[in-house]
Amino acid sequence: MAGKRRRAGDSSTAPPLRTTPSQMQPVVVFAHGAGAPSSSDWMVRWKDMLTDALDAVKVVTFDYPYLSGGKRRPPPKAEKLVDHHLDVVKDVVAEYPGHPLILMGKSMGSRISCMVANSDDINVSAVVCLGYPLKGVKGAVRDETLLKLKIPTMFVQGSKDGLCPLHKLGDTRKNMTCKNELHVIDGGDHSFKIGKKYQESTGVNQHDAEMESVKAIAQFVQNSIGET
């Protein structure tokens, strides 16, 4: 059943600064989408918001090999990027032992994060998917990876995201065996951008809608860590 849509609200205050990291602070590996690297404005902005909201000891971003050297090349099949992603995760776990591990990704990065989460080599506390690309190029529903997941999974989706119709995601979520949640950004597209006319007609505000999403992610992560 689809999660409740949330409208604008007051943003939360920043968490208090710590002098030493707490072992309950998560470490996050955040993967980019197919079309832009980790240095894109979208990724940098969301990395900053998530670092504060999750009180993360570190939010780690990286680039897949096909974007290395500043070159923009078409991405290979997602399955071919899993090993590189998993190596990054293992390095992060080695650097921050004992901290809860959260895998997060935008679009393609979220799909690969789910593939990595199914690995037996790592212990993942939760996966957060920002704009999961449920529909393939030819329109087929790509739910095989999601149906294999065993750890808590959250979806943050724009209501106008053509790559993930909410009714199709709802059907998939019903068939998933892991705990899963959905947060919908009213009027948001695949990158959560809300059109000006939609904002004016509904009163939805881009900044507040994103902050509500980040707060929902933080609550989901906190609950998932508490259950592990």
Any overview of this molecule?
The chain has 7 helices and 7 strands. With 228 residues, the protein is of the alpha/beta class. The protein has one domain: Alpha/Beta hydrolase fold, catalytic domain (Rossmann fold). It has a 7-stranded parallel beta sheet, with helices on both faces. Helix 2 (82-95) packs across helix 3. Mean pLDDT is 90; it is low at 1-19.
Question: Helices, strands, pairings?
Answer:
Elements (H helix, E strand, L loop, with lengths): L4 E2 L20 E5 L9 H13 L4 E5 L19 H14 L5 E6 L1 H10 L8 E5 L13 H5 L4 E6 L7 H10 L4 E6 L10 H7 L3 H22 L1
Helix pairs in contact: 2-3
Characteristics:
disordered N terminus; 7 helices; 7-stranded parallel sheet; 228 residues; alpha/beta; Rossmann fold; 15% strand
Order of SSEs, N→C?
EEHEHEHEHEHEHH
Strand content: 15-25%
Sequence of strands across the biggest β-sheet: 1-7-6-5-4-2-3
Helix/strand/pairing class, anyone?
Answer: alpha/beta
- Mean pLDDT equals 90
Number of strands: 7
Terminal residue distance: 25 Å
The number of distinct helices, counting runs of at least 4 residues, comes to: 7
Number of domains: 1
CATH fold-level name? Rossmann fold
Radius of gyration: 17 Å
In the CATH hierarchy, the architecture is 3-Layer(aba) Sandwich
